[in-house]
UniProtKB/TrEMBL annotation:
Cellular component aspect of the GO annotation: clathrin adaptor complex; endomembrane system
Domain MHD intervals: 171-449
Entries under SUPFAM superfamilies matching the protein: Second domain of Mu2 adaptin subunit (ap50) of ap2 adaptor, SNARE-like
Organism of derivation: Dillenia turbinata
Localization terms from the record: Endomembrane system
Alphabetically ordered keywords of this record: Membrane, Protein transport, Transport
Gene3D superfamilies xrefs: 3.30.450.60, Mu homology domain, subdomain B
InterPro entries, per the entry: Adaptor_comp_med_subunit (IPR050431), AP2_Mu_C_sf (IPR036168), Clathrin_mu (IPR001392), Longin-like_dom_sf (IPR011012), MHD (IPR028565)
Main location: membrane
Protein name as annotated: Mu homology domain
Chain segments annotated as transmembrane: none
PROSITE patterns linked: MHD
Amino acid sequence: RGEVPKGSAEIFFRKVKFWKEDGEEGEAPPIFVGFYPVPNVDGVNYFHVKVAGLLFVATTRVNLSPSLVLELLQRIARVIKDYLGILNEDSLRKNFVLVYELLDEVIDFGYVQTTSTEVLKSYVFNEPIVIDAARLPSLGPAAIFMQGNKRMPGTAVTKSVVANEPGGRKREEIFVDIIERLSVTFSSSGYILTSEIDGTIQMKSYLTGNPEIRLALNDDLSIGSSGRSLYDYSSSAGSGAVVLDDCNFHESVHLDSFDIDRTLTLVPPDGEFPVMNYRITQAFRPPFRINTLIEEAGSLRAEVIIKVRAEFSSDITANTVVLQMPLPSYTTRVSFELEPGTVGNTTDFKEANRRLEWGLKKASYSLFFTCMQIVGGSEHTLRAKLTFSQEYHGNITREAGPVSMTFTIPMYNASRLQVKYLQIAKKSKAYNPYRWVRYVTQANSYVARI
């Protein structure tokens, strides 16, 4: 509409890339105000979200609800992914015309029309250029779908919802992901201070005709406070009810029998969508325990000891585990000492922002305590010897830490919420579509104080 300057894209890029706050480089917030070309001109509001390594940006001079704009950007990213199958830079370049057509239908003269993949099918006529999934890097065990003994690679859900298989046929299948993001804070003595699970049941359907689906959850599922003790882990250990603090459902979900047998009935729309979002603040067993100790070794030296123990079953493996720990500003050198026989680990000292980084990727079963992954029940230790440029005074722990951790654990969920069965209304006796269910647990904010 001509309300923002043509150079707003360049302004956004420079602000995000070289973002500084209080004189220090950092990550730009999802919402900020830019000025063009000089500070005394009315500012442009920039909104952005990062999805699959790509930035989706909206600009306006009008005072809008931030949550509305951020949700719109997330939905636009989801619609583009539904049409392209794969959301990355290569797919966007090759399908630029299609993406431009989608944006033109989603937003008209600055006003949102629809973000429904199903509705857009009637107005979008360009066909997607399919990106060969075989060229994509392997996602590892976290990207494996399971159904009994069957396994399907994660690239199975990188198909466009509007494109057919070679030969003009469409494979009948449906994918359900139970994704949980954990927020846990440990005290310096290892006790849990806060814990929360943000979960979602995500569905992506490739079923023709949109048949009715029945999805059953745990019989012992309850919503609301259970009055359990803060350190009662019974529900995550295999007994006790699954207690949700609150939850919400997609508009297509019917709850007629939910209070009776915890069954959701829905007619899935085209594309990917969240069937249910839920939140849990009741006690649960954290997948990792982190213990950190700092020992002084003279006026110019100190030693940091970080121990990580996997609390889950030994038949489960965590991927892409990374620990980070800020160090005092006067740290000049760090030497690392790993366990004997350890291979596949990466350690680094970020001198620019004085940060220690420890990467654990996959554990080989042929060697004990080797960490290319973290296997359940195992324990790993890192020792880092710090050298300072000046004598420190007072407590060194005030300037170091906390330790933050990121990870992905496939086929594991801390809440014990499960999909008991997934029924699809049959069109005929021969109709038997594929059903795939995956559980994934990720770190949202996993922090240990020192």
